[in-house]
Amino acid sequence: MSIRAPRKGENYELSVDLNSEYRDKRKDAIKRVIASMTVGKDVSGLFPDVLKNMQTDDLEQKKLVYLYLMNYAKTQPELVILAVNTFVKDSEDPNPLVRALAIRTMGCLRAEKIIDYLCDPLQRALRDDNPYVRKTAALCVAKLYDLKPELVIENGFLDQLRDMISDSNPMVVANTVAALTDIHISATSNQPSDSTSDPAVFSITSAILNKLLIALNECSEWGRVAILNALARYDATDDKESEHICERVVPQFQHVNGSVVLAAMKVIMIHIRNVRRDDLVKQLIRKMAPPLVTLLSSPPEVQWVALRNINLLLQKRSDLLSNEMRVFFCKYNDPLYVKIEKLDIMVRLASDSNVDALLSELKEYSSEVDVDFVRKSIKAIGQTAILIESAAERCVNVLLELINTRVSYVVQEAVVVMKDIFRKYPLTYEGVIPTLCANLEELDEPEAKTSLIWIIGEYADKIDNADELLGIFVDSFIEESYQVQLQTLTAVVKLFLKKPDSSQGVVQRVLNTATKDCDSPDVRDRAYIYWRLLSTDPGAAKAVVLAHRPPISIPRTTVSPALLEELLGEISSLASVYHKPAQTFVGHGRVGADSVQRKGSEISDAQKALQTVAAGQQAENLLDFGDDSAQDGQPSGLAATQILPSTPAAANFLSGTSANPLDDLVSIFGGMETMDTAAGSLSTALSPTVTSQSSPFEGFGGSSAPPSQPAQNAQPQEDLLGLF
Amino acid sequence: MAIDGLIILDPTGRPIIQSSYTTYPAAYPLLHIEALNNALAKAPREGSVDPVIYVGELSCSSACCHVEVGGMRFLATISGDVDPLIAFAFLDAFIEILQDYFGVVSVATLKDNFDIVYQLLEETLDSSGHPLTTSPNLLSDIVLSPSLISKLLASVSPATPGVPSVRQGGSFGSNGASGAFTSPIPWRKAGVRHNHNEILFDVVEEMRGIVGKNGTTLVSNVFGKIESNSKLSGTPDLTLTFTNPNVMTDCAFHPCVRLQKWTRDNALSFVPPEGRFILADYQYRPPQSALVSNVPIPLSLKANMDMGEFGGTFALTLTSRLIKVMENLELKFYLGEDATSAQCTLSSAGSSVGSVGSADGSWSFNSRTKMLQWEILNMRSSGSWILRGSWTSKIKAPRPAHAFQIHFEIPSYSFSSLKVDQLRLSSETYKMYKGVRMRSKGSIEWRW
């Protein structure tokens, strides 16, 4: 403050007004200062002038001055010391609001010099008669711990907080629990290595448990959430206690605030694991459904969060909402993010009894305007067909109707979905093939093309003009995208193996083009392999190319069982909304990095092993790889159907081109890079399952790639984990 | 480690007011604002931005939850593993408080009263991220509402301006504090006095339904709410009983309701907070446990649609199935993004009243939202209202929505026919005025 402010301008005028002899003029000036502060103007030069107005009996003015102090305390710490006296004086004011305000503001200032003066007033405030002051002070302890933990311990504030759990006022209890939880979290996360010393600042004992259960019913919604979160951390001593907790928490389902309901649900999901009485479990599950349905009558934002959580709950307890599918029917003017979640849940709830209603809904959605939603709906039809065998034929009929609409994107998506159905039910719906082939010209998306080509190749012996149809793609081979090229190549070879007489010409042509004119090394490699196989041992070629593929199935869960358990413990948290474990996106950077590294080293070990194996192998041993990879490919391919539906990688997996795992590997990561950019849409959450299941492929990748490959492989995976 | 702060953005995406973010770097709120604005700019249309946007630029990653109110965006930034629902619930509570204080929540009212908004922010959200007091009953003791301030100022004699008003503000603080937070009941302030004691209940039931192409009801749910406005002195202990409480299922209650009493005798026993509050939420399910228990939809729509090239024609006939009068009926129809214009004629075929004329209805086409809207202010029973028209489109095969959105209100009616039996007051001796009003509304999607 050695440089004097210029004697004109807005700040000068403010400074004059702040020193005015009229109180209302000064108050007005403070308001103007705050207004300037809000719009980002620098009014820090007025600090001493504002400070002069701190001693006032006008509470509103005091609050405004405090507001200013909080904003500039960081940049002007040496001036804040001037305010200390007023703060200390205010903390003894007869008015409890002033006392609380002083304590709260001192805690927020985060200036070292103030902190030292905070302890005595805080000590008094924690014992204040007024509950408002006590509850403010409780939170202040957590803030102090954040700045100087040793001060909290030296002054015995922690013990005092633990005593305050028995406070007569439930609001004080709630804030105390919140403060202790905050301290607990920062204490345990700051010293993870120091596991021998007890970092459990806030361990919940049976005695505390009972106090919490009593306070639970009496405090505000926010207090309830804090208490419920603490209950979720409690390790019950026996199943009796778990039952007791569940019974006491269940009434919280009847709270009007959705966050209380979800927090209660989390407690139940955790403690229900230890409940042995089947009738109680049944009863609890039955009681969970209505509040979830009620949440769906909330605004769309809340609905979305609720739907994400419902989606997770259903993966564990599929019986939860078995009779409630209709609640999830999409309305035309629902926001897209709500519709997509509802769609997913509807498929999850599909059963023999409601599949007709579901299909007619899905058909309805497929005629809507929104392209993304239409595609997802058609995919859902395919998933339904795969999940419920008895309904497969009805699904196929709906798909045929959709194909007949001849709307381009509808047809293409339906073709892709048909391919999945062919894989699930081989040799069942061949009658559909002519209709699909009739739409050949309409297809312009690679995924749809590869799907149709796969179908033609797979059923080449049943389609009279298969050579003609594939010929069309061979003619345009060079212009096609490379996954279409790969698929064409495989399909033509299949055709040749099934009908060698009529297709000699076309196979020659495609192998020639692929090896000579194609610039993708993968396509060239595959063409060479086929060529060699066909010329040396057609029998082996048959075993590789026409290898039996086990039918696909859709897993009921989108996340691995272990992760699901972890996430269920996180119900009503960001983790459950993103369907990812908390440490992948929450601050604990070290944990995340560690696990990634561990994963990376596992992969490279596997890779080394496979490299040695692969080095000694001759061409015919590729047979085994072919089979293995085809089987390994199943889960990945499926996971991909659900999770990476729009990426070319998924298309590749599904089209059953696993005969060459290297391509698939490359394309997975190709796909993931595109996912990286598309990560903004969080709903297409990448499940960790994909990564873990795709790791066998990386081994194959290593076998023919230069040593630098592992590092590259690990890279996208880290990105993937780092995404959230 | 919860809600880091709250930011209010004006319609252009610039911050108007934000909480102090003392523990965060200066760029922290800016990053969230930018992330939201980017997401909104990228969104092809409204409603496609996820309500929770992940912000990963910082070392500790966080997310922002946002809602739109009066053109503004309210943005709560959260970090750590917290329930986004808490953020939304808090935003909801905060917006309600603002409505309570200013009546209308708009850029202008917030800018005019920014000092009050700041005080409210400080009172409701702790800087360590915990929501504090959001009950309007308790807040009104700590933060003076603008109407109260002006009342206080007006009561001051004009002869000595300035000085007395300040004293007034100061004395308010200590007076208010005597009552603040000493109340034994956390949701109710102590020592309330009214000359005229009254409590009003508004039972509002909302039907949400979907009707399929063939006119069958696919879903219809009725959600009910008992809104109350209490102006009672002292500590009134109330018991509200219904003649048919069994129509209320899946109830959720204000914390003031004693749950045991409800489970035992289906009576609502409570000490109400002061002012407006929602006493209970419920769902109405018709008693018969058929496979699909739908509540019948009180109107029917016949739609004759004819799609042509570059447009189409339609004839819509609405008929009421209710004896009560429906009000403010509104039918919306999205004509597709390439729609250019629409032309309609209105008519009606009333059975009894000859004068049912076009005066009752009106239509409009919004060329920006491409929404055709048909309004009928008063829809009596046993008549039908007809809207015939055509629209034009820039493309050959227009793709209008395959559903109509119908909204309506029915005053003094409830789907569940819930009936209040009586309201008893114990623990206080005064006479009070009590009132119960029923109201229903509906939003139906009718597909064609």
List keywords for this structure.
heterodimer, A: 724 residues, mainly alpha, 68% helix, B: 448 residues, alpha+beta, Beta-Lactamase, Immunoglobulin-like, 3 domains, nine-stranded mixed beta sheet, five-stranded antiparallel beta sheet, 21 strands, membrane (chain B), protein transport (chain B), MHD (chain B), Longin-like_dom_sf (chain B)
Give the tally of structural domains of chain B: 3
The greatest interface between two protein chains, and residues involved on each side, is: A-B, 113 and 105 residues
Report the mean per-residue pLDDT of chain A as an integer.
75
Radius of gyration of chain A: 33 Å
Care to describe what's here?
The complex is a heterodimer of chains A (724) and B (448). Chain A has helices at residues 10-18, 23-38, 47-51, 59-72, 77-80, 84-90, 96-109, 112-126, 131-147, 149-154, 157-164, 170-190, 206-216, 221-233, 239-249, 258-271, 278-295, 300-316, 336-348, 355-365, 371-387, 392-404, 408-424, 433-438, 446-458, 466-475, 482-498, 504-516, 521-536, 538-545, 561-568, 574-578, 589-615, 622-643, 648-654, 661-678, 688-704, 709-722. Chain A contains 38 helices and no strands. With 724 residues, chain A is mainly α. By secondary structure, chain B is an alpha+beta fold. Chain B folds into three domains: 3-147, Beta-Lactamase; 198-295 and 415-443, Immunoglobulin-like; 299-410, Mu homology domain, subdomain B (Immunoglobulin-like), CATH 2.60.40. In chain B, 21% of the residues lie in helices and 41% in strands. In chain B, a hairpin with a 5-residue loop joins strand 6 and strand 7 (217-231). The longest helix of chain B is centred in the first third of the chain and has 19 residues, at 84-102. The two termini of chain B are 49 Å apart. At the A-B interface, helix 2, helix 4, helix 7, helix 9 and helix 12 of A face strand 2, strand 3, strand 4, helix 2 and helix 4 of B. Chain A: Belongs to the adaptor complexes large subunit family. Chain A: Residues 703-717 have a biased composition (Low complexity). Chain A: Residues 684-724 are annotated as: Disordered. Chain A: One of its GO terms (cellular component) is endomembrane system. Chain A: Residues 9-537 form the Clathrin/coatomer adaptor adaptin-like N-terminal domain.
